User: Fold these one by one.
Assistant:
Number 1:
Amino acid sequence: MPASNRRRAKSLSNGRPPLSQKTSTSLSSKATRTLIRTHHNLEKAHARALNTGDSSTAETLSAEIQERGGLRLYQRASTIGQSASRGGDSSKILVQWLEELLPSSPAPAPSAPSPLALQSSRNSAPALSLLDVGCLNPENHCARTKLFDHGRGVVRIDLRSAHPLIQQQDFMSRPLPSGDAERFDVLSLSLVLNYVPDPVGRGEMLQRTREFLRVPGDGGDVRGSDGKGGTGMAQKRARVLPCLFLVLPAPCVTNSRYLTEERLEEMMGELGFALVKRKLSAKLVYFLWRYDGSNTTREEKEVFPKKEIRPGRTRNNFCIVLR
Ligand SMILES: C[S@@+](CC[C@H](N)C(=O)[O-])C[C@H]1O[C@@H](n2cnc3c(N)ncnc32)[C@H](O)[C@@H]1O
């Protein structure tokens, strides 16, 4: 392997879509990558300092993060990475997959009052609800498909909202649903898990996604005219929904000491997720996981500690821990 390729394989920041040199923004491709990498590294060091009770270092790092533009500049760099000229945004893959897996057009429901009302329709597929966690652009591909209930069924959140249609909210503090009407058919976690600075926090984020996914077979599936759920559409939906769309920089699974795709699949299985779709591009890895709702508590279940499974000097340290 040429030296330049080896160098590229090491860096998780290279997991962003390619950045071109010519854009209307003032951030070059290199500057954008450096900014993203530095932000992630500072966040990780900050989390480590907090974990070890080193509040003075944590404060210094926090100040440095702010001095360097903080989340605002990081989001700007990520938005540049989403532009069509730089590889496009990952929601395109989510929409492609759902349209392929659930081919019949759902009834358009722009003025539908609530997911519950949609569920009462028979013989037509209700539009899907979506929780888009870590949303930078409310006009991404999800906004342009009839798959989703654009009335009240699409909720977008981010740690820092860059748009009135995005709620400013930490997913880890989002109040738990009080009932199924507050759960979703689809949860998108695109390039968010790798933002979490520590392995335990990543495991907790994955576990938490289950709280926000609709319980399978709760009536959100389409029923056949016999009322027994026997239609082809109902079966197709049951094979896919509810689901989690997960996107990571490719090196998180292709070049990590601690995580491979196989190990991720084992972990997800442990949480009740089965792989439906997967795509590896030069920069990113995309997964669609169906949640079976079977595993809401993990007491006495298998734990996944930090364990080196693929040693090597050129590997990265991306890791997810399930406790
Ligand atoms: C790299 S951007 C990804 C944006 C978009 N989803 C994409 O695929 O390009 C990561 C975003 O996730 C957000 N984020 C990270 N942790 C989050 C959390 N716990 N709750 C909500 N948003 C979060 C960050 O604020 C940031 O805007």
Number 2:
Amino acid sequence: MPEPLFDKVALIGIGLIGSSLAHAIRRAGLAGSVTVSTRSGETLERARVLGLGDRYESDASEAVRDADLVIVSVPVGASGAVASAIAPALKPGAIVTDVGSTKASVIAQMQPHLPESVQFIPGHPIAGTENSGPDAGFAELFDGRWCILTPLEGTDPAALSRLTAFWERCGAMVDTMDPGHHDMVLAIVSHLPHIIAYNIVGTADDLEAVTKSEVIKYSASGFRDFTRLAASDPTMWRDVCLHNSEAILEMLARFSEDLSALQRAIRWGDGDKLFDMFTRTRAIRRSIIEAGQDIDVPDFGRHALAHPEKQ
Ligand SMILES: NC(=O)C1=CN([C@@H]2O[C@H](COP(=O)(O)OP(=O)(O)OC[C@H]3O[C@@H](n4cnc5c(N)ncnc54)[C@H](O)[C@@H]3O)[C@@H](O)[C@H]2O)C=CC1
Ligand SMILES: O=C(O)C(=O)Cc1ccc(O)cc1
């Protein structure tokens, strides 16, 4: 086993992402010891039963006291409260990072509390599932997935390299990005798909002409894919919507315009327009598969794609 990258790591929040980090850290031998802290006593007890750490602290400030790396993995709306609680106890020179799905808001919430003696490097692994809580995590979650770091002005390059090495040894590939750009990109590739999924499943649930049992019984795989996303954690997604509202509203406005164009093409029987649009979007799917980013598609899916010929 290679040398640990950090002597002491503190995991604040031990849900899907925190517990996956605990497993990945252990798999790669990245820490001398791991201290777990979370708000709810019940979750902390569950983490202890699962053996996710070496020490367990209900008080986040106690957990970070001697930590060299602190990873905050809580819903983005709780980032400010966590930063304020841990700030006085942080060890000078420690690296503080997070995994939140939005970046500008997390930075605005956390940075004012954190002392200049620590290196704050916000992060976001683009890897997850619809499950939450400490039982949901697994060591392979980050394998082959991107992790975006959004370093701030004045970040020490050595600290950035160390955090990059940490994520790489957790299995991820690392990119750096400006926080505002991150929020715009993630609004279209992650936040909108979840919002659309919540909406379509809600619409189906509200239909009077179709019973709930029919929705369950006849749901084709397209609808089932939406239900998976719509089963994601309500607290987490409420916070994402509230904390990336500007970019999400911008993307929703564009989406609504494009949906209206699609609606018009259907109303006027404009088959050429529909065909052209569906051909363009199919190319995106193929590019994702070619880039090896199609983790959810079993191997046979690659060969089952039809050719884009006009029928
Ligand atoms: N679920 C996913 O697929 C992904 C989530 N993320 C981000 O990771 C973060 C954590 O998400 P998950 O692990 O999925 O959530 P989760 O719901 O599985 O776990 C959240 C954890 O935070 C704790 N917590 C909540 N409020 C707290 C507070 N005020 N103080 C201390 N602890 C608190 C909970 O007890 C729990 O341990 C979120 O910011 C989310 O946006 C990032 C990538 C993927
Ligand atoms: O479950 C899925 O399909 C996801 O899209 C997981 C996910 C959720 C939130 C993120 O910020 C990143 C990844």
